[in-house]
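It is worth pausing here to work through a concrete case rather than discussing structure prediction in the abstract. The textbook approach is simple: state the sequence, then state the predicted structure, then interpret. We follow exactly that order.
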Amino acid sequence: MSRRRPPQRIRSAPARRPANLKTKITQEAASSGHRHYRVTLAAAPRTSACQLGGSPRDVKFYDNSSLKGVTAKPYGSQGTKVTFGPGHPVHFDIQVPSTTKGAKANRVVFTLRTPASGIIPGDQEADGKLSA
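Step two, the predicted structure:
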């Protein structure tokens, strides 16, 4: 008599890995002294949900492969936990102090954070026509 093995649980890849998500960035209305950009992250189907927290770190703006000297600063609560995974897209804003003339950019690169102020390895990228 043979014993049946219990079914193996198939582990799905985490949604936060760069290969498992789609990103988009759009320029939003400016406020007093700042430009705002909305980044949307959407997880691939059949990935596992995870927790993200706070503003992204190490935000860099590029025009093609040319790095722009634009500095984004975190704002708002950095301890807020957000569930990210299939069916749970995440939106966050990048805030940049206004200058007299915006620098043309078409890509932003950033690092996601964990709720405990850690970082999630790997750079994320979002493309869009911007003036940073």
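Step three, interpretation. The mean pLDDT is 81. The chain has no helices and nine strands.
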